[in-house]
Amino acid sequence: MSTLVLPLLIGLGFDVTRSPVWDTTVQQAIGGKETRIAKQTYPRWKWELTYNILRSGAAYGELQELAGFFNARQGMFDTFLYQDADDNSVTAQALGTGDGVTTNFQLIRSFGGFLEPMLAPNVSLPHYIYVNGTDVTSSTSLTVWGTSSANGPGIVTFNTAPANGTAITASFSYYFPVRMSEDSVSFSLFLTQYYKAKKFSFISVKN
């Protein structure tokens, strides 16, 4: 699993499409009654970006950088990290309640009241873990996307289990682990050494 971050290029357009994607099996009986089976506990998120300008000249190389990033992922094969401009951090997010035994807590974030696990905390930025409002960051550790851990990514591990009834909260920044949605991407030349990409799409992954 790659942990490289999608490069931020100045030619990125404002037109960004973001879609939650569910997977539901619907079976309809002769009488019209439906049986619905949800195959996912959480949505996968899909993004479609538009690059209005990708300069290919030697002084810039933006086309080469984006195409090289895509090819290094081998299309849909490898993962990478994406930082959504409008959804990349939480403050005082409730993670759970201590019971005196549990030492591992999954990082989560609430988006419109819906809770989802966050698998790729951005540890290059400051993060804070609190027990009943007291900063205990120094006595915890985080697992991040792309590292081997029996607990899985995005887990806060306390050196000592928080006492029974204590509130566990966290403030942190995060990425979304994603992969490309397709095995090809089109770059259109519209001026000498100036390209654009109308659809650069990728979707979140859990492993």
Features:
1 helix; mainly beta; three-stranded antiparallel beta sheet; 2 domains; ten-stranded antiparallel beta sheet; 207 residues; 46% strand; single chain
Percentage of residues in strands = over 45%
Number of strands: 17
N-C termini distance:
8 Å
Sketch the topology as an H/E string, one letter per element.
EEEEHEEEEEEEEEEEEE
Q: Report the radius of gyration as a whole number of Å.
A: 21 Å
Task: Note the overall shape.
Answer: globular
Uncertain ranges? none
Mean pLDDT: 95
Treating each run of at least 4 consecutive H or I residues as one helix, how many helices?
A: 1
> How many structural domains?
2
Describe the largest sheet: 10 strands, antiparallel
Fraction of residues in helix: under 10%
What is the SS-derived class?
mainly beta
Would you give an account of this structure?
By secondary structure, the chain is mainly beta. The protein has two domains: 17-83 and 178-204, no CATH class; 89-176, no CATH class. The protein is 5% helix and 46% strand. The protein is built from one helix and 17 strands. It has one helix at 62-72; strands at 17-21, 24-28, 34-38, 44-55, 79-82, 89-97, 104-106, 108-111, 114-117, 120-121, 128-131, 134-135, 140-142, 155-158, 167-180, 188-191, 194-204. The strands form four sheets. Strands 1, 4, 5, 6, 10, 11, 12, 15, 16 and 17 form a ten-stranded antiparallel sheet that branches. Strand 11 (128-131) and strand 12 form a beta hairpin. The radius of gyration is 21 Å and the shape is globular.
